[in-house]
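Could you join me in thinking about how sequence relates to backbone shape in a protein? We need material for that, and I hope you will provide a protein of your own picking. Label the sequence line and the structure token line clearly, so we can match residues to local backbone shapes. Would you write everything just below, so we can both look at the same thing?
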Amino acid sequence: MKRPAVYHHGNLRQVLLEAAINLIGEVGPKAFTLREVARRAGVSHNAPYRHFQDKDELLAAVCTQGYHELTEAMLNACGSRATALQRLKKAGLAYVAFALRRPEHFRAMFDARSYTREQPDSAAARQESFEALLGLVKACQKERHLPTGEPHRLALLCWSMVHGVAKLATTGCLPYESEADVLKFAEFVINESLPVRARK
């Protein structure tokens, strides 16, 4: 029997990733199986093991892909001539936009943490994203837009703010039907919440 073309073209890994992403969109990151991913990819149920040890490793690959794209989106949105505070706000808006654009990745990145936290590639990509945010916070502190003190806690505060909006949006909990309206709301939240002033 002739093997599927994915073997000959050497793109089996990417085909499996795409099948996994589509399946996550339907059943979430916790319910899908490698066997179903293989079926949708049009390969044998053993084929995924050529690239992934188990379901967790495949999920981690989806997360790694998502974190890299998120980091790139945040940094690209910042602009080079903006103030540190403007860059932080733009990165926050890019975070929400990413969640809207890549809801399957977003779900895998944050709803499957217990499955992927031990995977080094996804852990490194996740840390890279947080370091990008931390750098923006430190720049705001340097320009005195944010209070001095522990930048890590301020970065977590900023992350919690935009992640909350993104999570509400991707789960259909916000009273907005269009992406543009969600982003307008996100911009409102960001502008109202930043800068975070020091307590007196």
User: Anything to note?
Assistant: Residues 1-9 have pLDDT under 50 and may be disordered. The two ends are 75 Å apart (CA to CA).
